[in-house]
Amino acid sequence: MGALNQTRVAEFVFLGLTENWVLEILFFTVFSVTYALTLLGNILIMVTIVFTPRLHTPMYFFLSNLSFIDICHSSVTVPKMLEGFLLERKTISFDNCIAQLFFLHLFACAEIFLLTIMAYDRYVAICTPLHYPNVMNMRLCVQLVIALWWGGMIHSLVQTFLTIRLPYCGPNVIDSYFCDVPSVIKLACTDTYLTGLLIVSNSGTISLACFLALVTSYTVILVSLRKQSAEGRRKALSTCSAHFMVVALFFGPCIFIYTRPDTSLSMDKVVSVFYTMVTPLLNPLIYTLRNEEVKIAMKQLRQRQIFS
């Protein structure tokens, strides 16, 4: 409690992506469209899966949860960033900053766990297809989703506690457009080396361990495809390649940002934009453009709405 009583900073000031007002207007336009497409694309996937009975399978249940997490994940940072483009002084209160980093880590960690579960789902479906209905039943799927949210909550609470226990008495300028643990703890009025190591051991270990588990799963799947028919190999490769593209796009920035203790690079802002904005938009594009079942279901749903 002593550390909390020393907190004097009432707000933080973002430097944002640029100080050039022309670029700010350009970024505002581009990112507004990107965010709108992210919301529309992910909502469309969720609605299609909910209203198409044949898509009520574990794979599409997880995909609908991924779309929900992507909506939440992008909504944590993007609206505040868009607001900043229109303001000369970009500020956020201390409490809102802590809330932002809490939800950022909650949804990011939940997505990491969900992508790992989705890889396991594909492993069971392709490598042990006869046991798949018994292993990946809907009861287990719901339990796994509940577990990933609990895991994300615990991770986020740890990150938030490590951040909020430090004293903040100035400066209060964050060289970014959103609050994240690495950028906030740099402003603490005390030595943060140990805290930085704890943060890296938490976020970095989760990201790296899950990524290695994913790579192992897909490697085993690729090896097992030699026993499949040509049609089976084609379908499995199409599904797994889409999954792995999403994994690479999401885990790459996470590992880049959260496995470096107390270091900043000029590329961090670009990587953060990709991680918080571009990836949630690419996910629905990847899963719709490469998935015939989803495209057919969307077409049928649209026709059903037109004729009704």
TrEMBL record:
According to Swiss-Prot or TrEMBL, what is its membrane topology? Multi-pass membrane protein
Report the transmembrane regions from the record. Answer: 25-52, 98-120, 140-158, 206-225, 237-258, 270-289
Q: Where is this chain's protein located in or outside the cell?
A: Cell membrane; Membrane
Q: Which residues form the G-protein coupled receptors family 1 profile domain?
A: 41-287
Entry-linked SUPFAM superfamilies: Family A G protein-coupled receptor-like
Instruction: State the InterPro entries in the record.
Output: GPCR_Rhodpsn, GPCR_Rhodpsn_7TM, Olfact_rcpt, Olfactory_Receptors
* GO annotation, cellular component aspect: plasma membrane
**Example GO molecular function:** olfactory receptor activity
Q: Which UniProt keywords apply?
A: Cell membrane, G-protein coupled receptor, Membrane, Olfaction, Receptor, Sensory transduction, Transducer, Transmembrane, Transmembrane helix
Query: Belongs to which family?
Result: Belongs to the G-protein coupled receptor 1 family.
Under which name does UniProt file this protein? Answer: Olfactory receptor
